[in-house]
UniProtKB/TrEMBL annotation:
The keyword Transmembrane helix applies. This is Heme A synthase. One of its GO terms (molecular function) is metal ion binding. The keyword Transmembrane applies. One of its GO terms (cellular component) is membrane. It comes from Paenibacillus flagellatus. It is a multi-pass membrane protein. GO terms for biological process: heme A biosynthetic process. Keywords: Cell membrane, Disulfide bond, Heme biosynthesis, Iron, Membrane, Metal-binding, Oxidoreductase, Transmembrane, Transmembrane helix. It is found in: Membrane. Pathway: Porphyrin-containing compound metabolism. Its main location: membrane.
Length: 312
């Protein structure tokens, strides 16, 4: 299992890097750095030494390496853990979404895509990262036991049975799905270049509710959606601390989710404040890292709820 631990960890870290580099491509407008050629860059195996082409081609190269790692992890899981439906779901889910986002990225280079479709590219990459992360956490915490032949053994869950009410499970699943919607809207803001639609924070162009047209409407909807996510996560954190059966793992996960939500909103504000400055790229990339971590934590809490339902 040691080799599988390192392989799954490398896949998760790699998918996180792919997410980061994809955001860098978008923020630096390097998507056309290789023209309409794929997998070559402007018809060459080694691209011209321009910033845009190097950023785009580096993203492609790293994505290819990570794709191989994800494939190897899926094969290893099939060889060692195919008795575990959960491990197989995460391993082959990561492989599926890695291939899907790669195909979508290639099509975006060869054929112009709408902003709505390009926002899905980030969304699929995020799901690939989350499933890779969940597989890694499951393996490294001992949630899956290698088959010993015959019918094998049932997989353990880390920490044993996690107490969780049906209501709590539903709230967590709603928050996870809703967070994906917020992420998609954020990706849509980036691809439509609507970040400047709402200048100032927390007010939008000096108004509580601005005129909901064009870039302003898109940016404002994202802000409202983010506030809704904060309310959801805060309520879950309150229930985990005050109302739920004692579970240190659930409380810790809820606290991390709340912290990351607050930091994500703060980083969103810093993106607005840094518009037009040298800090803009850094704050935008930090925003992507934080929202990816938040989605990963919420997905893990959803898995805890799923396990509790199976056990209960």
């Amino acid at each position: 299992m040691k080799g599988l631990k390192w392989l799954s960890t490398a896949s998760a870290i790699g998918m996180g890097l792919v997410l980061f580099m994809g955001a860098l491509v978008t923020k630096t407008e390097s998507g056309e750095g290789c023209g309409t050629d794929w997998p070559l860059c402007n018809g060459k195996f080694v691209p011209a030494y321009t910033i845009e082409s190097m950023i785009e081609y580096s993203h492609r190269f790293v994505s290819g390496i990570v794709g191989i790692l994800v494939l190897a992890a899926a094969i290893a899981v099939f060889m060692r853990l195919r008795h575990s439906g959960e491990a197989m779901l995460f391993a082959f889910g990561a492989l599926f979404f890695t291939v899907l986002q790669a195909i979508l990225g290639a099509l975006a280079v060869i054929f112009p895509q709408s902003d709505a479709v390009m926002a899905l590219h980030f969304g699929f990459s995020l799901v690939a990262f989350a499933t890779s992360l969940l597989l890694t956490v499951g393996i490294r915490t001992g949630a899956y036991v290698p088959s010993t032949g015959g019918s094998g053994r049932r997989p353990r869950t880390d920490g044993g049975s996690v107490p969780m009410t049906a209501g709590m499970r539903r709230w967590i699943w709603v928050a996870t799905i809703y967070s994906y919607v917020v992420v998609y809207i954020g990706a849509f803001v980036r691809h439509t270049e609507s970040t400047g639609g709402c200048l100032g924070w927390p007010l939008c162009n000096g108004e509580i509710v601005p005129t909901l047209e064009g870039a302003t409407g898109i940016a404002f909807v994202h802000r409202v959606a983010a506030v809704g996510l904060l309310a959801l996560v805060a309520y879950i954190g309150h229930r985990a601390t005050r109302s739920e059966p004692a579970s240190a793992l659930l409380r810790k996960s809820a606290n991390w989710a709340l912290l990351l939500t607050v930091l994500q909103i703060a980083s969103g504000a810093s993106v607005v404040w840094s518009l037009g400055s040298d800090w803009y790229l850094l704050t935008a990339l930090i925003h992507v890292v934080l929202v990816s971590g938040l989605f990963g934590v919420l997905c893990y809490m959803s898995v805890l709820g799923w396990r509790a339902r199976r056990i209960g």
